[in-house]
Description:
CATH superfamily of the largest domain: Bira Bifunctional Protein, Domain 2
Order of helices and strands: EEHHEEEEHHHEEEEHHHEEEEEEH
Number of helices: 9
Radius of gyration: 20 Å
Number of domains: 2
Structural class: alpha+beta
Distance between the termini: 41 Å
Largest sheet: 8 strands, mixed
Amino acid sequence: xxxxxxxxxxxEDHIRSxxxxxxxxxxxxxxxxxxxxxxxxxxxxxLLEFLEDSPKNTIMIxxxxxxxxxxxxxxxxxxxxxxSLTVSYIVSVPSSLxxxxxxxxxxxxxxxxxxxxxxxxxxxxxxxxxxxxxEAFDRLQLKWPNDIMLRGGKLGGILSQLVPARGGRxxxxxGIGLNLSMPDKLLEDLFELGALATRPACLDWLMEIxxxxxxxxxxxxxxxxxxxxxSAWMGVFNAHPHGTSRSLHAHLERMNFLADRYVTVTFxxxxxxxxxxxxxxxxxxxxxxxxDGRTRRISxxxxxxxxxxxxxxxxxxxxPGPDGGLTASAAGNNLFNHSTKSDSDPGRTGKQGKESR
Length: 357
């Protein structure tokens, strides 16, 4: 798809947004646009220039239909034209930060930014915001490393992808998919048939989702609100990456869907182990106590919550293999160079783009 096939939606100080009716993958489209800008050099790289103008600048690509959405580890993200939000954002980070542990927090950053917006949308639809915080807010959680959870089901997912860069800033693509509304029977059937890896959830469990001709405007409003929240978070992350990591750590601990849950961890080697989640480390690794009594930090792998106790599930091993993907290095203290809240937490970003602390 060429740049001219995109429709400009909205432009403000730190957001440039585009719309496309149908695309294979919004992340793939975002990658091709940035790569095209890099190939065209100084005469055609207006998107790259926009990203370099400010650390808060964000490019948004919203699609009505996505036919080949992507998830982690080669998984497919299924989307429905009438009940899904499929959007990708392009932000940037200093190239000098690429080897820093703070980079591990960029996917959780997108998750926190999205959940904060969803909480505000739900609160706006509730008659009593206090009651909403006591019920609906507690059910919006983040599952390490990239899932948004609602009442135990998967509401959405996040896929981050770095784009190789030649300059001082490196583009980062953040794809977000959300289930807005689908018939419960369809969701259950897809899950039971094995088409979905995780039991799904929908935003219309918490609020009424516009339908028909009103749905596109709602999707655009929600996508722009997430973009503004993401822009605010990226502004403070770029200015104070280590302090922002500390703030995100606190947010993720509060929203942690896996806290104290029994899980199976499947590593890229195919080895699966059963254990209990102990928490999130300062470098964004997951800490799991396995059935052999050893506690390890997990940096890669698929994590599934289970209802069994310490016994390993059928086909799993009770001890890690030689290349089970476990990491045992100590977390570095360099994440805490800037720790004040005013430096590291943009607070909530409302639908009007206002920041509050």
